[in-house]
Amino acid sequence: MSSLTEIRDETPPPLTDAAVRAAAPRRNRWPARLDVLQSLSGLFLALFLIAHMGFVSTILISHEAFYAVARFFEAAWLLGKPYPALVSGVVAVVLAVFVLHAWLALRKFPGNLRAYRAFAEHRERLHHGDTSLWWLQLWTGFALFFLTTVHLYGMLTQPALIGPFESADRVWTGNLWPLYLALLFAAEIHGGIGLYRLAVKWGDLAASRARLRRARQAFSAFFIALGLVTLAAYIDLGRAHADRAGERYTPPATTEAR
Amino acid sequence: MIRLFRKAPDSGRPRRLTASVLRHNPADPASAPHWQDFVVEEAEGMTLFIALNEIRATQDPSLQFDFVCRAGICGSCAMLIDGRPGLACRTLTRDLGERFTLAPLPFFELIGDLSVNTGKWLRGTAERLRTWVHAAGRPDLDALEERMAPELAEAIYELDRCIECGCCVAGCGTAQMRPDFIGAIGLNKIARFRLDPRDTRSDEDFYELIGDDDGVFGCMSLLGCHDVCPKQLPLQTQIAFLRRRMAALGF
Questions:
Q1: Do B247 and A32 touch (CB under 8 A)?
Q2: In A, residues 7-46, which contact B (CB 8 Å cutoff)?
Q3: Which residue of A212, B147, B178, B198 is 20 to 30 Å from B33, comparing CA positions?
């Protein structure tokens, strides 16, 4: 009885705004983290795309140059003998980031037919550059789900088969050139728009948007052009090497040493 | 001079404009959305607001559209002009073709023809985002207000220029897909109260209001809002700023 009386006698603390806020459950912090992760994973993939184009386009310099780049990642210069599994490791990391980015980006896709139609009609009537760009970003992203997966799986499972003849045979005799052609356009357009979007999403860049747009167009145009010339070089080499498809490339210096 | 390069002589006759208006009265069960053409003779310095009033006065008194100020201040006459959100009173007919379309703003509840209920949505958004100064205590109405640096007052006023016309929400791709998205109006309001030194709320408090995919993280930065805002508010910089502040709280 005495304890009940004590309870009744206690005066409740005044209910202030701060007290209400402190008592309410805090809003989840994951939306903030996911937003940052989406941007960071996209930035990583765009930078990888640039570096990747730098590596594969060394075929335009010479067969030896591309061979040297391919072997560099097997780390024979460091570990004494080549470890193609290291290439698989790099591919696995890229694949993981790619899957993460795709999963995060899916949150932004129209979730049902009503949303899809609402956006499509909006884009059609507004005639607004950045809105139309997002549609392009969405569809190139959707295409990349499939195109990139095929390419990455090949690199993951056959890391040793990267070299002038090996890659050229894969492109031509392996019939992968149509996939690489589509992948080139989808990746470079998507990457260019993505980098532009990152800038306007996080930066104070309203005044320099026109310049950013030109930079985006230049980015996509440059890498598509470089990619087309590079792919043409692999196709050319692949056709010339078709009757000896499967033969591994050995650099001239090694041949002379033998 | 070759005839081809000679400037066509100005006939001196005013253009005959055809406004194709999307009409529908949701209160009338027999009404179905349809386009109706109205022809008006263009006058010097004519705005869409003037053209619409002329149509209503001389051709069809049942045509519904909103206006109050005629000067781009009240935000009532926002509509889709050739598919793009804009204010009828700030749109000169000379900037349009001889034929153009007028439609109500999407996203908002349709009252009839070109009139939409932006107020209902804005009221809900204001209550949801608690867009008023949250002062520390009961204000003393007899005391002088705290002084504020002119630069800060101007920065607040810059964001307070929003006339709540709804153009930014109608121009927002995200809002079309996700009706619960607060849009640039809501985010701009939060940016405005965040600047205000009289408001005691912290970034943690603002995160409670906009820290999810219906708030700042839902914005996909398509910038339709920024590009159609008739008051040229710095929406891109404000949304990017809020995103940085709110994202920092996630770590």
A1: yes
A2: 17, 21, 24, 26-36
A3: B178
